[in-house]
Design goal:
The complex is a heterodimer of chains A (828) and B (214).
Chain A: H1 2-23, H2 30-40, E1 45-48, H3 55-66, E2 78-81, H4 85-102, E3 108-111, H5 117-125, E4 130-133, H6 135-142, H7 147-150, E5 156-159, H8 162-166, H9 169-184, E6 189-194, H10 200-208, E7 216-219, E8 226-230, H11 250-256, E9 263-266, H12 270-283, E10 291-294, H13 300-311, E11 317-320, E12 335-339, H14 345-353, E13 363-368, H15 374-387, H16 400-412, H17 418-426, H18 436-448, E14 462-467, E15 470-478, H19 481-489, E16 499-504, E17 509-514, H20 515-519, E18 526-529, E19 532-540, E20 543-548, H21 568-581, H22 592-607, E21 615-622, E22 627-632, H23 637-654, E23 660-663, E24 668-672, H24 680-683, H25 685-688, H26 694-701, H27 704-718, H28 731-734, H29 740-750, H30 755-768, H31 771-782, E25 785-791, H32 799-808, H33 815-827
Parallel strand pairs in A: 1-6, 1-7, 2-4, 2-5, 3-4, 5-6, 8-13, 9-11, 9-12, 10-11, 12-13, 16-20, 21-25
Antiparallel strand pairs in A: 14-15, 16-17, 18-19, 19-20, 21-22, 22-24, 23-24
Chain B: E1 2-3, E2 6-10, E3 13-18, E4 22-25, E5 30-33, H1 40-46, H2 54-70, E6 74-77, H3 90-97, H4 99-103, E7 106-110, E8 124-126, E9 129-131, E10 134-137, E11 149-152, E12 157-162, E13 167-176, E14 181-183, E15 194-195, E16 201-205, E17 211-213
Parallel strand pairs in B: 5-6, 6-7, 7-8, 10-11, 11-14, 12-15
Antiparallel strand pairs in B: 1-17, 2-3, 3-4, 4-5, 9-10, 12-13, 13-14, 13-16, 16-17
Classes of the chains: A alpha/beta (828), B alpha/beta (214).
Chain lengths: 828, 214
């Protein structure tokens, strides 16, 4: 009987949702109906469909239809978590129009870094029905004593673009916040939306927690059609241009682009975006006011102006980095351009998806290679798309830094009891293997500063507060107001290098530059930043003062980070692609990319080999004063770097020498100034590909502690040792500045078994040197037939590595000149 | 070339830069160090950042070792002996007061910005110091005469070295040859620093025994 009424109610709600669809002239898709039913059934889960297929409506209509008395809510009813602030406004609009259909009184509000303190206060006093927030702002809410009230009657949480959060520590942060909400609120339903990924079960488990019943996974077989158009080099050449030289072929790109269409041009680095912006403005003076620049280091106000300019149609083209990656709220965007390798398929599809935001719409992306071998990647991507396989996204595990930050957050707010909180945390997917002793270490660290109490006499952070009637039932709190303030200013897992603010002498802020770049400038130097030529005047109190300049300069700041290797799936596919290239002469036409690469590939084949499926290519190139080894593993940049270091060590063991190392996604090169006999590699192949002493050798081969130190920088910021932001710029706060490397040295010297040091070790091994991937790669190479060719002139495959090496050596000549010379020699 | 110390003359005064982050004046038998920042760890602890204070013990041990080796008549600290007046424990206070006796030498402190408000006994306190045409101060003093040399602390000079894939940041002595200012490296273990200008002449401290001129 009860079941029937429940079913009736469910049917009622579903027909209500369907009515909303039909008034808009839409037809619900099967996966949308499935999602509504699953939600109204009380299930938790994940909805996996390509971007722009209507997953927001799939996830949201269920919870929305259940809000019964919106005006008299005592707390937030639906919490929506999105990875980017820019997404919020968009979501708010679409939810609001849907909510209107159910009940005019449903309120939707945004809470993120841009929300004013007044609005924030108002939200706590009178919570909206639906709150849209980011993982960082949600954490910040948990550090507030009001959070208990704000979420008292929360019924559902929806996480947007979960795949985007999953790949980083932001995913951990999200999991931990969810664990607290789950623990405090009964009958909470949690749903996530994700793009298609290979490990969707894991993604769903991370959302619902380990102890929940099997989460529902809703997928569709909607294949979004994606059209990739590659900009091909105009002339037939037999050498692959490389790096930012790709900018030379801007004219081919400009021919395809429509000046009147709204366009996003994605680049991989901020440096690249500045270069392209400069180039486009120079060649299209009539577009001067219609082209804008957008990257994460520019001033917030300027970025907002660009976003609004596009929305109003005043700005047509935006050169940007991933700062505009996700939902850009000025849609529709008509043209999308990807400059340089997108490194993985998910990102390319995501970006392409911006061009068609309606279900069934075709998405289109124009690819502008910066190195012609990147065309092979596109050809490989086409094949992956066709096969329907998707990439896996790994959620980091056991990030102690994020855990410590979370515990401090809770101690700032409603406090936490260690026994209860431990169970909640161990229920998170990425902390399921948390050891008892490590948990205790974390508590010691927060309460006493460390295990050795003598070393921390004045330490204070979290303190026990027992409840009146029960001594067992204590909670940890932070009492000190300034500590709370400092923590709240530093919540988050996105860390960065030290920045200086760039300002005009008159006071207008332009954005942020890395301190390192700034420290190398002398007064009078000119450089290009924020799309402007600037002259350095002076630096004071972390502010770099500049004035406009008309002098020409090629100096463009480079920002650290953003280095990425191509994904596993893409590597594999790329190897297949190269195998196919062997047969190129048997085909008249395969696709535009391979066709355009034909002369280059033919030259590779004549000069050396194109490795077949079962082969592995090594080239040796000797000049008058250098011996070069080129090894093509096709296993991604990081793996190549690892094997390069390994081989350098193993070579040196046989015959002492030093090598300079260069690596890219294709392979690596070792260069030495002596006449070195690299053919030994073939004779001793087993020794070089040996997997047994891999870890030991790697630690010896690489300045391991230096890598760990660099990793530790980020860990120290997240765990609150180093504060990125200071609420006050008083003297006392400046006395609290110390570099993470000093922390690293002190902890290593005086405190054995420091968990955060251990974490940095783990991170280097798993994410940077990728031990597992290196080992897998060696195993694979061992089964291949090694082709070792002595080459008389560098081959097309070796060329990008050669250019890369030149970039890293010192010379007064500009890189362009040197490359030009090289090309000359090469073409003769 | 790596050396165990670097000597140079300013007029007729001999100065010796030591890799143990100190400057020695063999003529007057004076030893100079600066920017020790004692009590820094405790200052962090008070502010909820767990930093062990074992480092102060090491700072004292290094001072002792230096004095034993060079046996100076006077140890001059060019400012920032302490990190903050709020983080001087009784033990630390006592240790500093006992310093002249322990080292069996006179100790002078040229006050630094961090020392302001600290209660310091048994040390001779100065604002700056002048010996012939050398002026000793914590922060650099701008003066016109090119005959004078200003030796100071405060900046914690460091040098940043970088090549393919490798980078290093090291303490150094730095000389602004335009203004005749010699910046001494920070002595304290718990001190960071600032990368100094390209135009400065530098002597990089490679280890406790090695120093190199660039």
């Amino acid at each position: 009987m009860k079941n029937i009424t429940k079913n009736n109610k469910q049917n009622n709600l579903i027909s209500k949702i369907k009515k909303f669809f039909s008034t808009n002239g839409w037809e619900p898709l099967p996966f949308q109906i499935e999602s509504w039913k699953a939600f109204l059934n009380g299930e938790n889960g994940i909805i996996q469909v390509p971007t722009g297929c209507g997953k927001t409506y799939a996830a949201l209509m269920g919870p929305l239809s259940q809000i019964e008395d919106p005006k008299n809510n005592k707390s937030v009813n639906i919490l929506l978590i999105t990875p980017l602030k820019a997404l919020s406004r968009d979501l708010k609009n679409s939810i609001q129009s849907a909510a209107l259909h159910f009940n005019k009184e449903i309120t939707v509000e945004i809470r993120n870094g841009d929300t004013t303190p007044y609005e924030k206060k108002k939200q706590l006093a009178k919570p909206p029905n639906i709150l849209i927030t980011t993982p960082e702002s949600l954490s910040l809410l948990l550090s507030n004593k009001e959070s208990n009230n704000l979420f008292k009657e929360l019924s559902s949480i929806i996480i947007d673009e979960w795949h985007e959060l999953m790949g980083s520590k932001r995913g951990n942060q999200c999991e931990l916040s969810l664990s607290w909400l789950r623990g405090n609120i009964k009958n909470l339903q949690i749903w996530a939306m994700s793009a298609t990924i290979g490990n969707i079960d894991e993604a769903a488990r991370a959302i619902v927690g380990m102890s929940a019943i099997k989460p529902k996974i809703i997928s569709t077989n909607i294949q979004k059609e994606i059209e990739i158009i590659s900009v091909l080099p105009e002339e037939e050449t037999t050498f692959p241009w490389s790096g930012h030289l790709g900018i030379r072929s801007h004219s081919s790109l400009l021919k395809i682009l429509d000046k009147n269409k709204s366009t996003l041009l994605f680049t991989n680095t901020r440096n690249q975006s500045e270069r392209w912006y400069q180039c486009l403005k120079f060649f299209l003076p009539e577009m001067e006011d219609k082209i804008a620049l957008h990257h994460g280091s520019l001033d917030k106000e300027d970025r907002k102006r660009v976003e609004e300019g596009v929305k109003d149609g005043l700005i047509k083209w935006v050169v940007c980095t991933s700062s505009l990656d996700l939902g850009v709220d000025f849609q529709p965007v008509d043209q999308i351009v990807q400059i340089g390798s997108a490194k993985n398929l998910a990102r390319l599809i995501q970006r392409a998806g911006r061009s068609a935001h309606r279900p069934g719409g075709k998405s289109k992306i124009i690819f502008m290679p910066t190195n012609s071998l990147e065309l092979l990647e596109i050809s490989a991507m086409r094949r992956i798309i066709k096969s329907g396989i998707s990439e896996e996204i790994r959620l980091p595990e056991l990030s102690y830094d994020v855990l410590l930050q979370h515990l401090i957050t809770l101690a700032c707010g409603n406090g936490f009891n260690p026994i209860i909180e431990k169970e909640r945390i161990k229920n998170c997917w990425s902390y399921r293997n948390l050891k008892e002793q490590d948990w205790n270490w974390c508590l010691d660290f927060l309460e006493y500063g460390g295990k050795c109490l003598k070393a921390y006499p004045k330490y204070k952070k979290i303190v026990k507060e027992e409840s009146e009637n029960n001594n067992e039932n204590f909670k940890y709190f932070i009492k000190d107001k300034s500590l709370i303030r400092m923590h709240k200013f530093n919540i988050g897992t996105i860390t960065s290098d030290k920045f200086v603010n760039v300002k005009y002498m008159k006071g207008k802020s332009l954005g942020n530059l890395e301190e390192n770049f700034a420290s190398k400038l002398n007064p009078g130097d000119t450089f290009y930043f924020a799309g402007k030529m600037l002259q350095f005047v002076r630096i004071r109190d972390m502010i770099l003062y500049v004035k406009k300049s008309t002098k020409k300069s090629s100096l463009i700041p480079a920002w650290v980070g953003g280095q990425m290797a191509i994904s596993d799936l893409l590597c594999e596919s790329l190897r297949k692609e190269i195998d196919i290239c062997n047969e190129l002469e048997n085909y008249k036409y395969l696709n535009p990319e391979l066709n355009s690469l034909r002369p280059i590939l033919m030259k590779q084949k004549v000069l050396s080999n194109i490795p077949k499926k079962h082969e592995f290519l090594i080239e040796i190139y000797k000049t008058k004063d250098l011996s070069n080894l080129f090894v093509f593993t096709l296993d991604g940049k990081f793996v190549n770097e690892g094997i390069a270091f390994l081989w350098a060590l193993r070579l040196a063991k046989l015959k002492q020498s030093t090598f300079s190392i260069t690596a890219n996604d294709f392979g690596f090169s070792l260069t030495t100034s002596e006449d070195y006999d690299f053919s030994i590699i073939k004779k001793e192949a087993d020794y070089f590909l040996d997997n047994k002493k891999l870890e030991e050798d790697l630690e010896k081969a690489i300045n391991f502690s230096e890598l760990k130190k660099r990793r530790f920088k980020n860990i120290a910021q997240i765990s609150g040792l180093v504060n990125q932001n200071n609420p006050t710029k008083t003297k006392s706060s400046s006395q609290l500045q110390i570099s993470s490397s000093l922390f690293y040295d002190v902890f290593t010297k005086y405190e054995e078994g420091h968990l955060l040091i251990k974490q940095s070790h783990q991170e280097v091994k798993e994410y940077q040197l990728e031990n597992k991937r290196i080992s897998r790669s060696l195993k694979r190479l061992k089964n291949l037939k090694m082709l070792l060719n002595e080459i008389k002139t560098p081959t097309p495959f070796a060329f990008p590595l050669l250019v890369e090496r030149l970039k890293n050596t010192l010379s007064n000549e500009p890189i362009e000149k040197r490359v030009e010379k090289l090309i000359k020699k090469y073409s003769d | 070339m790596i050396k165990s110390s670097f000597k140079f003359y300013w007029e007729d005064t001999l100065l010796e830069m030591l890799p143990s982050r100190a400057l020695f004046l063999p003529g007057a038998k004076e030893l100079l160090i600066c920017d020790i920042h004692l009590g820094k760890a405790e200052y962090f602890q008070q502010n909820g950042i767990p930093l062990t204070n074992n480092t102060d013990e090491n700072n004292f041990a290094r001072i002792e070792k230096l004095v034993k080796k060079y046996n100076p008549d006077k140890l001059i600290i060019l400012g920032d002996l302490f990190h903050s007046k709020y983080s001087i424990s009784k033990t630390l206070q006592k240790k500093v007061e006992d310093l002249p006796e322990l080292l069996n030498t006179n100790v002078e402190l040229v006050l630094g910005n961090h020392d302001i408000g600290c209660n310091i006994k048994n040390l001779k306190i100065l604002d700056f110091k002048k010996i012939k045409n050398i002026i000793f101060s914590h922060e650099p003093i701008n003066f016109k005469s090119n005959k004078n040399l200003n030796i100071c602390g405060h900046y914690h000079p460091k040098v940043y070295l970088k090549n393919n894939g490798d980078k290093l940041s090291l303490r150094c002595f730095a000389m602004d040859t335009n203004k005749n200012i010699l910046f001494l490296p920070a002595f304290g273990d718990l001190t960071g620093g600032y990368h100094c200008k390209k135009s400065f002449k530098k002597w990089i401290i490679v280890s406790e025994e090695q120093i190199i001129e660039i």
